Fold this sequence. Notes:
Helix content: 40-55%
Strand order of the largest sheet: 3-2-1-4
CATH architecture of the largest domain: Orthogonal Bundle
CATH superfamily of the largest domain: Winged helix-like DNA-binding domain superfamily/Winged helix DNA-binding domain
Oligomer: single chain
CATH topology of the largest domain: Arc Repressor Mutant, subunit A
Order of helices and strands: EEEHEHHHHHH
Largest sheet: 4 strands, antiparallel
Structural class: alpha+beta
Number of strands: 4
Shape: elongated
CATH class of the largest domain: Mainly Alpha
Distance between the termini: 44 Å
Number of domains: 2
Amino acid sequence: MPPRRTTTPRATGTITGLAPSPRDPSLMTIEVDDAVVGTILRSTCDDLKLVEGGRVTATKAAAIHAAIDVAAARARALRMLAARDRSTTALREALVARGHSERAADAAIAMLTADGWIDDRRYATERARVLVERSCAARAKGRRGQSGAAIRARLMREGLDADTIDTELRRAGIHPRDGEDDGAFEGP
């Protein structure tokens, strides 16, 4: 279940409820003055020193609001990654396009990268392999496959950096500039 926010955190108040999410123990639901304000990561709850009976100041309310946004971005990113692997850039763009702030998207991506959920090198390796296999299969059927340069351009559009792409294409046995002049490479 994604993190939720039912009311805007009040400028002041008392934390009346702090409970782990039954579906995800890494999340905590926060109530201020008996109103659920949202769900944040347990680690953030610890960092903010949130405890039942504790006071919520305007500064702390702003921090809680930001933490709710980060937890929501993280949850959405995990759902997106469960569907298919993505580059850091593509994931960030998708999160922002779906209404998450750039700051929340960046924080969520940093957490997921640190936890190993996002790895641009792994993504580039797998994506290059898939594109090379498709190109070779097309050539085996007498159709024109993509050149190394075309695969490189496609990976660049997907937000990967040039050095990572070139390294992974070479690892797949493709020169990244193959076919710039004549179309398709012969394949590995």
